[in-house]
Amino acid sequence: MITTEQNEQLRTWFAEHLPVDVYASLLSVTVDREEITVVGEIPATESVAAFRERTREQRMEVAREAEELYRRKVSWAARSGEEQTLFTHLAVPVMTRLRQPERQVLDTLVAGGVARSRADALAWCVRLVGRNTDTWLADLRESLDRVQQVRAEGPDLADSQKSGSQKSDSHKSGS
Asked: Does the CA dihedral 52-58-61-66 come out positive or negative?
C-alpha cells in the first residue's frame, strides 16, 4: 500500500508535469498496485469529449513518462461541476475463493438481475461497501500509514540480524 506521503509526492509530480492548460485544477491523484488515476476540474464551458480531444497528446506524453517512472498505467478523469467522468482506466481481474454462503449472496444478486455474473455481483458488493464505509476505510488507511511510519522508525533489520547471529555464536560456544 502506498503511504500518504508517497501519494502526496505523486500528486506533486503530476502537478509539476501536467501543462498548465490541461486542467483548470488538479483535484486528486489516486494510486494502487496497477494504476494511477489523475482527476482534474475542467472549465464548465467545456464538454468532457472536447477536453479529451484537446488534451489527448499532452496527457499521453505525461502518462508515458509516469508509466516508465512508476511502473503503473495512468488513467484520467475529468470533473465538471458535480459530474465526474473516468476514462482510459483499467478493469483488473482479481481472484478469490468463496465458500457456499458467500457464493449464494452473489448468485442471489445475479438471479435478482442486480448483476449479470458472479464477477459483476462481487464488483457491486465492493462498490456498496466502499460507498457505505468511506469514513471507516479512511481511518483504516490512516492507521496503515502510521504502521508504515513506525516500521520505518524501528531498529535496523541488519543490526538485529547481526545481534541474533552473535547470540547464536555465543550459545554455540557455551555448549
From this structure: negative
